[in-house]
Amino acid sequence: MRGASSIAPLAVAAGDSAALSRRGCLVSLASLAAPAAWLGAPQMAHAGGQLEEPLMDSVRTALSSAIANQAPPEPEFFTTEARLHYLRWLGTQSDRLRPRKPDLEVRRDFLQTVWYESKRAGLDVSLVLGLVQVESGFRKFAVSSVGARGYMQVMPFWTRVIGDGDPGKLFHMQTNLRFGCVILRHYIDREQGDLFMALGRYNGSRGRSPYPDAVFGAQRKWLFADRPQSPAA
Fold first, then answer.
1. For residue 110, what are the contacts with CB-CB under 8 A and spacing of at least 6?
2. Ranges for the Transglycosylase SLT domain (predicted)?
3. The dihedral of CA 188, 173, 34, 146: what is its sign?
4. 153: left (phi over 0), alpha (psi -120 to 50) or beta
5. Each residue of 68-101: pLDDT tens digit?
6. What's the rounded Cα separation, in Å, for the pair 148 and 170?
7. Partner of 21 at 20 to 30 A CA spacing, among 86, 100, 174, 206?
8. What is the pLDDT of residues 174-183, one digit of tens each?
């Protein structure tokens, strides 16, 4: 297993046109909690689940640090073109996601958070959206037969290993996406960049093709080919 340095990609890669920052505010524990009424009749999912494995102390510490700080994401850009690129991406993906999330504000909050957490973890945003589609069908309260929870179907043991031990927080949008992206980054590092093997490990089916193939197939829907407008003549 690789050491703490394997978590370095959680910083945004150099050369990325958009810098990321967080507002200096705290999210109250009440907003992260999962009241019983809120979680009544969770929607079932049929994805697999990550397997609990021993972690080196250095890796556990790095992962714990990577999921800390739950302030809302707020994109920040160095250039006008970087901001316009993001807005074009957001508009395109919002249109694509509308059938699954009809409410515009909910849709935009979700996409902004996916964008932020993917970039923060050094992941392709389209890959994360493809994974969410396969894992939960974009259902916030999805629960699998093995107990995986939320958008990215995170297993509750992760909250004990690298969090505060409260699995109810996995139904909080940003918490779930943060855990999922950090865990996927960890698996990619363990597999030395092999996405096929990393996705299998994420699903608990390492070495088998159905799950990675499903994610790669779903990813194609979320690819974004930017076509900036040409300046007026």
1. 97, 101, 138, 173
2. 117-208
3. negative
4. left
5. 876 678 788 899 999 999 999 999 999 999 999 9
6. 9
7. 100
8. 999 999 999 9
Nearest alpha carbon to residue 3 among 78, 63, 74: 63
* d(C-alpha 100, C-alpha 81), whole Å: 29
Q: How far apart are CA 191 and CA 197, in angstroms?
A: 6
Q: Say if residues 166 and 29 touch (Cβ distance below 8 Å).
A: no
**Whose CA is closest to 55, among 7, 9, 123?**
7
Question: Which tokens in the block code for residue 69?
Answer: 């700080």
The answer to whether 174 and 154 are in contact (CB under 8 A) is: no
Length of the chain: 233
Tokens of 72: 């809302």
Q: Which two tokens stand for residue 6?
A: 């394997």
Tokens for 182?
A: 């950090």
